[in-house]
């Protein structure tokens, strides 16, 4: 019996653990999953300190939300009468329901942070550049990435409403009210998203469908394309200038700048997956996911804050209302719609504005990109500062407090 299990195990895993170089090449061709990888990868793109594997970590976090989310769907009821109580059931009655709920929530929040960091890494290394002499489309992948960033935010936002407690309903009320101020199309978009004029049953079922079906399907398709493109573009952009050309005539011993992709890359992906899962588990064990009292329109929390990743918009809105005589430009539009729209459009088209020399590709903070990096850092730090300021220092009536003097605001995040 032990022998049979051992030989079955070896049969299943040999491709991930080849003994010889010849076997490693054969594994790539024979194994469905390993087909994805190139024959070799450069040591630089493979190193921990180049990409920090942030893209892979984003994908693993998405996978965790997917697995735990499907399990949660068996118990959660998308009805305004029952949603809150089904979350209580998950947390207090279902065996290990709390583990599922907290893992799902922390993986979702972490995904927002890590996708943002991954985008910063790609920007700082100018990795949206094409490989000279190769028909690459990294710019397309950058734009796909920008859409993925928006989709990640929308995924987190639509999930935020589902517990149907005071925190979630009022956070969504604030965030949707921001979008409503868009001239011409704002009201129509608002009604389409919310399913009427107030946050109600129609809203819950729409958010549920977006969160559990529509957005995950779009994200799965986009991530698949994103990863396929990396393979088609010849790996990470760091290969372009810092490594010898991919010359197959170089012998294994001479080829010091590259390693065999199999088994090195799948092993590292396995390690990153386990490490990410452990971090989520630790967060799950240390921090409870909030659940306040059931949602009610009868009283409004003071202050009502948007989900943390939209707090920078709420903060911007509070000081962008412009009054010129009787003429008023709504801060909701300026801070909540106009500024973020300009920022996201600028982000999407940046590769075509960036005219620094090709040499800067794949190098962290290259000196020829100084002003771009400074501008980008200032914008990112401003966003982070506004989120932290809003989160810790804004209290009742949106007044400013020192964090230690601020009246307690229950269960945030
Ligand atoms: C769910 C979100 C995302 C996932 C799962 C993902 C996944 C990945 C992975 C696995 C890589 C390989 C390198 C690495 O691990 O860092 C990568 C590279 C890349 N990503 Fe993403 N990504 C996401 C979002 C984004 C965003 C928001 C952007 C930019 C706005 C972006 C732009 C790129 C580009 C241009 C590359 C190629 C970089 C290079 O050649 O060095 N991605 N992505």
What attributes characterize this protein structure?
413 residues, mainly alpha, Cytochrome Bc1 Complex, Chain C, two-stranded antiparallel ribbon, two-stranded antiparallel sheet, 16 helices, binds protoporphyrin IX containing FE
What does this protein look like?
The protein has 413 residues and is an all-alpha fold. It has a single domain, classed as Cytochrome Bc1 Complex, Chain C, CATH 1.20.810. It has 16 helices and four strands. The longest helix is centred in the middle third of the chain and has 32 residues, at 201-232. The radius of gyration is 24 Å and the shape is globular. The N and C termini lie far apart (51 Å). Protoporphyrin IX containing FE is lined by residues 51, 53-56, 58-59, 62, 115, 118-119, 122, 127-128, 138, 141-142, 145-146, 148-149, 152, 223, 226-227, 230, 236-238. Residues 51, 53-56, 58-59, 62, 115, 118-119, 122, 127-128, 138, 141-142, 145-146, 148-149, 152, 223, 226-227, 230, 236-238 line the site of protoporphyrin IX containing FE.
- List the total number of helices: 16
Q: What's the mean pLDDT score?
A: 90
How many strands in all?
4
% residues in beta strands? under 5%
Condensed summary:
The protein is mainly alpha-helical. It has helices spanning 2-13, 21-30, 43-46, 48-51, 54-73, 83-92, 97-124, 138-160, 166-180, 186-194, 201-232, 239-242, 261-286, 311-318, 331-353, 370-393, and strands spanning 40-42, 258-260, 322-324, 327-329.
